[in-house]
Each structure stands twice: as C-alpha cells, then as structure tokens.
Write a structure and sequence with these properties.
Elements (H helix, E strand, L loop, with lengths): L3 E6 L3 H12 L4 E7 L2 H10 L4 E5 L7 H11 L4 E6 L4 H10 L3 E4 L4 H12 L4 E2 L4 H8 L15 H11 L4 H8 L3 H15 L4 H10 L11
Parallel strand pairs: 1-2, 1-3, 3-4, 4-5, 5-6
Helix pairs in contact: 2-3, 3-4, 4-6, 7-9, 7-10
Keywords: DNA-binding, Phosphoprotein, Transcription, Transcription regulation
Organism: Micromonospora rifamycinica
InterPro entries: CheY-like_superfamily, NreC/VraR/RcsB-like_REC, Sig_transdc_resp-reg_C-effctor, Sig_transdc_resp-reg_receiver, Tscrpt_reg_LuxR_C, WalR-like
Length: 220
C-alpha cells in the first residue's frame, strides 16, 4: 500500500515536530515535508506530489486561507486539512470556501488526527465534532433557496445529495436507499463532478448557502 504523503504547515517548530511524531506512528502516513508558512508550502506543492497538507490558519507572511486557495488552484488533487482553535471560526469558514476539505482543532486526539488525514486523502471530509453547525452558521445566517442549485442532477442524485448534505455516510445511504456500496459511490462521484464540488464538506456548504437545508439539518 502506498503511504499518504503529508506536508505539515505551521509557524511553530515544536508543534510541527510533535505532529510529525504523532503521524509517523501510523504506517499509512508518510510526513514528507514541514514548513513554517503558507508561501513555503505553495513552493513545495509546486515541486512535489502531496496527498494532504495539514495547514495552520494563523501564520506570518501568508496565512492558511490564502495558501489553501493557491494550493487548490495549482494542485487540485491535493487535499488541505486545517488545524485551528475554536475562536478561529471566521477564518475556518473562509478556508473551507477557499477549498479546504475540513478542519480540526489542535486538541484533537492523535489517533483521530491520523484517521482524519486518511479520510481526507480518500476524498471524504474531516470536521471537528460538535462545531460543524456553528461554523457553517457563519456562512449564511438566513439562507434563501436559490433556483438551479441542483441543475443537472438526476432524481436519484438529488436524493443522494440531500443525504450527503445531512452528513450521512456511504453505509447509511446504502441502508436507507437499499443500494449497493458501489452504486452509492458512483452516485456520490457523479454529484460532486456535476456540481463542481471537491468533497462532502463542500456538499454541506453548497446545500446550506443555497437554502437546500436548514441549520437544524446540518451534521454535527
């Protein structure tokens, strides 16, 4: 099995060393680079293939939001996973809009951090438990349903989209719609492709910003 290639981006050298130690325990993960700011991260992404960038938000020079937007632009296959604190909600929303595939808080358990890196690498999302609804609430306080938000989707894909927007896993969708796992995976890929969305967390944001779900429907 090919290891997931990860870069650590944080201006605190001690934290980068700690993260490297934590992630290196997991045989699925290889930490190939670590840098202190967003500008250096972009240069590494230009020169090397990476699967996941574990990105701090507040850094001198170029912050994580600006770096995320550029990384997503130049390396669409590279996933960005943000690390933040609870009082960074506004910046987290901006980072997700810029293309991040999720965020975790810096008090995350080591095993949960490693699993989140693997989840993001596989195309799913990673959101800190209990705060997803709070963060997404900042995206739009009073969403209005927008016409055409699901144009191009088949009726089955609209159904799949609705379940994804409510945080359902592939297994839960299989059970609810009585479909095989391969069929569900195919529909999920098609939904993401047709709507131009990177992953599940962007399905949730698309649904919320377009008034397709309310705050009470959000996962977390």
């Amino acid at each position: 099995m090919t290891a997931i290639r990860v870069m650590l981006v944080d201006d605190q050298e001690l934290l980068r060393a700690s993260l490297r130690t934590v992630l290196s325990v997991d045989e699925r993960i290889e930490v190939t680079h670590d840098v202190a700011n967003g500008r250096d991260a972009i240069e590494v992404v230009r020169r090397h293939r990476l699967d996941v960038v574990l990105m701090d938000i507040r850094m001198p020079g170029m912050d994580g939001v600006a770096a995320t937007a550029e990384i997503v632009r130049i390396a669409p296959a590279t996933r960005v996973l943000m690390l933040t604190t609870f009082d960074d909600d506004d910046l987290v929303v901006a980072a997700i809009r810029a293309g991040a595939s999720g965020y975790l808080t810096k008090d995350v358990r080591p095993t949960a951090l490693a699993q989140a890196v693997c989840d993001v690498a596989s195309g799913t999302s990673a959101l800190a438990p209990g705060v997803a609804a709070t963060v997404l609430d900042l995206v739009r306080q009073a969403p209005t349903r927008r016409a055409g938000a699901l144009d191009g989707l088949t009726p089955r894909e609209v159904e799949i989209f609705g379940l994804l927007a409510r945080g359902r896993s592939n297994g839960e969708i299989c059970a609810e719609l009585v479909l095989s796992e391969n069929t569900v995976k195919s529909h999920v890929r098609s939904v993401l492709q047709k709507l131009g969305l990177r992953d599940r967390v962007h399905v949730v944001i698309h649904a919320y910003e377009n008034g397709l779900v309310g705050r009470h429907d959000l996962p977390g």
